[in-house]
DNA sequence: GGGTAAACGTACTGTAGGTACGTATGCGCT
DNA sequence: AGCGCATACGTACCTACAGTACGTTTACCC
């Protein structure tokens, strides 16, 4: 039985082309998340995109894939922001501060998206959290290993260290987003101090 | 309408006492998670505990509270394991290795629980992830601030640093749980190298 | 011994993810 | 030009699960 409603009738739309493409669906998902929080339903996202649920499934492929796609978006923004921040900077403490600050600022600029991605409510959040991290971690690991090799150290630690640094940023960001009295610069300085000099700070003279 | 089934009839059980208490429910939840993964339903957990859903609500208070309680359990195990590992150890690099190794080993021993807690599928995973972290972070922050003050440094970094270290461990653990060719000791050494000496490793002579 | 409160299971509701199916439209083929 | 087929989409449905209202049984206490 098909109920004829007053809404748009089903069928192929004018032009023979898709009403929305994958990117527009993701845009709609981002808007929905920003407006309604990380718990938006797929139906609300579909409504925001001007289509219905099955279209989301055709373009994206379900809740898990949607989360992955949004993770990839956020990771890409972070990587881009970081890369442009440290472009042409020599390796050193000041470059590290720039790296951290760019990361934190991008997270803050995408607050709801970050909360959705790190917390989400998919069926495999841990794997997705790792998936997000791996996107940022891969280039970082290459950089770290290269630098370690150049300075005559063991480059094998690069992979673990990259996950360590990303994880540090991830949880610190989560904590920081609930703080008010701390700027991205200030936090970046604190983290740089730990990452650059380590806990083994010699006693002050 | 009440259907009389062949199962246990409703009513107060023998003894006038509760069939299960809060801890037994949490035990059942842990078993269910270990057996069926992080996606177990409350009904499955109730079945495992030998009761029904409303009892879960009476003892715990819903999915969010269950997740929080399990987070607290895991955090407590980690903190206990860490404390007993570094008891009577002087602050230094070797104590740091013990701290990290104990943390990693406890996570590995509670693999499914860790995945549930860090990934979960509650309505506020980010906040819970932060909640879990804060339980481990609080004592660590106190230690760090104290130590910084003792050595004549700025103790204000303690809080951020504790979240940084916990976050580092959290994501690194997630990554590590999917690796096979790396022992807890080996990873602990790598992380200790980063945390103790920092990236600013002087060029080898 | 009867009333009351504790304890619990049954059965329901609401919501959200995922899917089967029917319908409208455009393109190509004859 | 007209007919068929593939494409694109909405309607309506199913299922699973979190959360809850209500009735029933049992123990305790006066």
Number of helices of chain A: 9
Termini of chain A, distance in Å?
A: 85 Å
Radius of gyration of chain A: 21 Å
Count of individual domains of chain A = 2
CATH homology superfamily of the largest domain in chain A: Tetracycline Repressor, domain 2
Range of helix content of chain A: 55-70%
Number of strands of chain A: 0
Which pair has the most extensive contact? A-B, 55 and 55 residues
CATH architecture of the largest domain in chain A: Orthogonal Bundle
| Poorly predicted sequence stretches spanning 5 or more consecutive residues of chain A | 1-6
Described by strand count, sense and barrel closure, the largest sheet of chain A is:
none
**Portion in beta strands of chain A:** under 5%
Structural class estimated from helices and strands of chain A: mainly alpha
Structure description:
The structure is a homodimer of 205-residue chains. The first copy, chain A, is mostly helical and 205 residues long. Chain A folds into two domains: 17-61, Arc Repressor Mutant, subunit A (Orthogonal Bundle), CATH 1.10.10.60; 63-197, Tetracycline Repressor, domain 2 (Orthogonal Bundle), CATH 1.10.357. In chain A, 68% of the residues lie in helices and 0% in strands. Chain A has nine helices and no strands. The first copy, chain A, has helices spanning 22-36, 42-49, 53-59, 63-86, 93-109, 111-119, 125-150, 158-176, 184-197. In chain A, helix 7 crosses helix 8 (158-176). Mean pLDDT of chain A is 89; it is low at 1-6. The interface between A and B is large, with 55 and 55 residues. Chain A binds a DNA duplex (30 and 30 nucleotides) through helix 3.
């Amino acid at each position: 039985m098909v109920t004829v409603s007053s809404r748009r009738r089903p069928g192929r739309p004018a032009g023979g082309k898709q009403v929305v493409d994958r990117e527009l669906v993701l845009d709609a998902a981002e808007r929905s998340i920003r407006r309604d929080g990380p718990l938006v339903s797929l139906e609300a996202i579909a409504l925001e995109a001007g289509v219905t649920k099955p279209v989301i499934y055709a373009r994206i492929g379900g809740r898990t894939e949607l989360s992955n796609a949004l993770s990839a978006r956020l990771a890409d923004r972070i990587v881009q922001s970081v890369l442009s921040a440290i472009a042409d900077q020599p390796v050193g403490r000041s470059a590290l501060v720039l790296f951290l600050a760019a990361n934190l600022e991008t997270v803050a600029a995408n607050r709801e998206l970050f909360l959705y991605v790190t917390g989400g409510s998919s069926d495999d959040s841990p794997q997705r959290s790792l998936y997000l991290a791996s996107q940022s971690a891969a280039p970082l690991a290459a950089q770290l290993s290269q630098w370690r090799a150049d300075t005559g150290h063991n480059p094998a630690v690069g992979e673990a260290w990259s996950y360590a640094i990303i994880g540090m940023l991830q949880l610190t960001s989560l904590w920081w987003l609930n703080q008010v009295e701390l700027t991205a610069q200030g936090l970046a300085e604190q983290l740089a101090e730990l990452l650059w000099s380590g806990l083994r700070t010699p006693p002050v003279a």
